[in-house]
Amino acid sequence: xxxxxxxxxxxxxxxxxxxxxxxxxxxxxxxxxxxxxxxxxxxxxxxxxxxxxxxxxxxxxxxxxxxxxxxxxxxxxxxxxxxxxxxxxxxxxxxxxxxxxxxxxxxxxxxxxxxxxxxxxxxxxxxxxxxxxxxxxxxxxxxxxxxxxxxxxxxxxxxxxxxxxxxxxxxxxxxxxxxxxxxxxxxxxxxxxxxxxxxxxxxxxxxxxxxxxxxxxxxxxxxxxxxxxxxxxxxxxxxxxxxxxxxxxxxxxxxxxxxx
Length: 260
Fold this sequence. Notes:
It is found in: Cell inner membrane; Cell membrane. It comes from Motilibacter peucedani. This protein has 260 residues and is an all-alpha fold. The protein is 70% helix and 0% strand. It has helices at 2-26, 56-60, 75-94, 100-120, 125-145, 149-172, 179-195, 197-220, 233-257. The longest helix is centred in the N-terminal third of the chain and has 25 residues, at 2-26.
């Protein structure tokens, strides 16, 4: 059952990944994600339905537009395949549980926001702010149907805690962290708080560690300086993903090292 669920969610992820390619390109530019339909970025011709099959169409067309033969970035199938894999992993982790829709939504916005932040150094309000009510509504399902009201309350409290923490950091060091990161921290707090306070601590800590390591590597490679502004959103989201998957184990391992 778990393998079948993961496969089904993987296929769903491929389709969602195709849509996320549109989101990543259009949302930062203030364009509609609905109209016009998918089209070639070079010649503007609409993409035919048979050429809009995730991953497969790109492979069959050898990465080129059918109309103008201009190359189509390999990022498109990679985003589709990556989203499919992330959805499958999420389903394998959550199983057939009422929390699954909520965490699939988290997987989708993780892909979109990470790529947008890398591209334009911004976390659009158009995605982050609606994620608060969407996440709350999706987490309300397991809270109501499985009686997990304590988990929902902890999720809300964790959202407030992480939002306040990141807000304080942004105010204390202007320019070091954007307010897009502050708003995203609240969304991350909702999800990690649902799982437990150890996941909240691990997710927040890993985000800072991963961001610091990436910055150090870029400085060592002379691709950045100590004053360079690096997007923090992808590292926050990666830290959250690791905390979702293994936050409890990592926290217990840390305590064991301390002899607690």
